[in-house]
Design brief:
The chain is an all-alpha fold and 113 residues long. The chain has one domain. Helix content is 81%, strand content 0%. The chain is built from 6 helices and no strands. Helix 1 packs across helix 3, helix 3 packs antiparallel against helix 4 and helix 5 runs antiparallel to helix 6. The longest helix has 29 residues. The protein is elongated.
Length: 113
């Protein structure tokens, strides 16, 4: 991590902390990047647990939507559909790392068909 990125993350964490970390975590529009910053900078176990839970919820939602979109684009022909399938596959594989074992099995099942 370079100095600029570290400084940006520190400043972002200070802003989030000033707003209220629990309020930020509970906000429906919080970004994954903000949650990752909170997770890496906070020392409170309760805030870490809330952040991890929120990240898992967001990841599960993205996996569910990604599987549905990949399934829709699976049997469509054309260059655009092929690119869409490749993008959905990439996103699902990337999110598979943080998924539960059930979600990982669902992703592998959809991608292997």
């Amino acid at each position: 991590m370079d100095t600029t990125t570290g400084l940006n993350q520190e400043l972002r964490f200070m802003l989030l902390e000033q707003y209220g970390l629990k309020k930020v975590i509970a906000h429906p529009d919080v970004s994954e990047d903000d949650l990752m910053i909170i997770l890496s900078h906070t020392t409170e176990p309760e805030e870490k647990a809330l952040t991890v839970s929120r990240l898992q919820t967001i990841n599960s939602e993205h996996i569910r939507v990604g599987i549905a979109e990949y399934t829709k684009a699976k049997h469509v022909n054309g260059l655009g559909a092929a690119r869409a399938r490749a993008q959905f596959k990439y996103v699902l594989q990337k999110r598979c790392v943080y998924a539960s074992s059930i979600e990982q099995a669902a992703i592998q099942n959809v991608l292997s068909d």
